[in-house]
Specification:
Layout (H helix, E strand, L loop, with lengths): L1 H30 L25 H23 L17 E12 L5 E9 L2 E7 L19 E9 L7 H4 L10 E9 L10 E2 L9 E7 L4 E3 L1 H4 L38 E3 L3 E13 L4 E5 L10 E6 L28 E3 L17
Antiparallel strand pairs: 1-2, 1-12, 2-11, 3-4, 3-6, 4-5, 7-10, 7-12, 8-9, 10-11, 10-13
């Protein structure tokens, strides 16, 4: 009898324990939903293993000509794409572009001040896909509800050799009519800023005098000490200092709270992180080579690295004049641009610097 009672008691305790755990988990999932960690639809395996297909020189030349014809065809088709003109408002959000950081160049203002600018070359951007707000799902759904959802525009840049990509990756470009590209990027846009597939975006998408944000991956510097990573002064070279010239020193006291506080500046990995430089002014635009001259030298990334340029999010530096919305179309505009567009404050060296008043 005692054995049966003990068995019944253990079973009842186990059921109550499971019931309590289930109730706690339900409450936790309701208040703090578990994020859905999954890759986006365009994040597939890109490069495939190289295979020696034993092609003759004639076949290789034929494939090169075929790829070049496809590039020319897609470029000509992109010039003929038109869309409905929409009146731009400051609350609308346009797409960005994929650019390449190519160097630093000085410019001079009319008052004689020199400014350093970074050259960002806008690559051959093409619209690959568009996900409407109702169809796009974020890879990490941390919130159960998102207000004012925006569409997702997928851009590609720098057309590559299709034979080096996988079948799944090439399938992303099937509807756009563009050959597979080496780089992809997403930009959230308003509902009215959706672009037709295959649209080509150039440096004329921006205007001189406006402000942009640039997102890039910082230079990977590996494991560094506190002097290089955080700018510590270091210890003296002499006066009794022994083997602690470049060390960080004390990191905190002992006692009741004797532990390493989160965020303590210590040695570690430096760089290789995405950072955004906000509020950079466009001083000059070269329409022939699609180059943007933006202010500053601290744009994240190495030379020839890929960056993402889009309209600034800073409320005090948003453009007040009307922008080409959703982008600048060559077929709809007959305006002839000069090769170089300068801001009003920049001194143009081809113009005279000294003027005389005739009396």
């Amino acid at each position: 009898m005692a054995l049966i009672f003990n068995t019944f008691t253990r079973v009842l305790e186990e059921k109550m324990r499971l019931l309590s755990i289930t109730s706690v988990n339900c409450k936790r999932n309701k208040m703090y939903p578990i994020p859905r960690l999954r890759n986006p639809t365009w994040l597939t395996r890109k490069e495939r293993a190289p295979i020696d297909e034993q092609l003759t020189s004639e076949n290789r030349e034929f494939l090169k000509e075929f790829v070049q014809d496809k590039i020319t065809e897609s470029t000509e088709r992109a010039k003929t794409i038109v869309t409905n003109k929409i009146q731009w408002t400051p609350k609308m959000q346009r797409t960005g572009v994929i650019a390449k950081k190519i160097g630093v160049y000085p410019l001079w203002k009319k008052n004689g001040d020199m400014i350093c600018t970074t050259l960002l070359q806008v690559m051959d951007n093409h619209v690959i896909r568009y996900y409407p707000p109702e169809n796009y799902e974020s890879p990490r759904q941390l919130r159960p509800r998102v207000y004012n959802k925006k569409g997702c525009l997928l851009l590609g840049a720098e057309i590559g050799d299709p034979s080096t990509f996988t079948k799944e990756y090439c399938g992303l470009f099937q509807d756009s009519g563009v050959l597979p590209t080496k780089f992809l990027a997403r930009f959230f846009v308003s509902n009215d800023a959706a672009l037709p597939l295959g649209t080509n975006i150039t440096a004329k998408h921006f205007q001189v005098g406006n402000y942009v944000d640039v997102r890039g991956k910082t230079t990977d510097r590996g494991f560094q000490g506190v002097m290089k990573r955080h700018g510590f002064k270091g210890m003296p070279a002499s006066h009794g200092v022994t083997k602690t010239h470049r060390r960080g020193g004390n990191i905190g006291g002992g006692g009741e709270k004797g532990r390493v506080w989160p965020g303590t500046k210590m040695p570690g990995h430096m760089g290789n992180r995405f950072r955004v430089a906000r509020g950079l002014k466009i001083w000059r635009i070269n329409t022939k080579y699609n180059v943007l001259y933006v202010s500053g030298r601290a744009i994240p990334g190495e030379t020839n690295s890929i960056v993402y340029v889009f309209d600034t999010k800073l409320p005090l530096k948003k453009p007040m004049k009307e922008l080409p919305f959703p982008t600048y179309f060559e077929s709809e505009n007959d305006e002839i641009f000069e090769e170089d567009l300068f801001d009003d404050e920049i001194h143009i060296f081809s113009s005279p610097s000294i003027t005389y008043n005739e009396k």
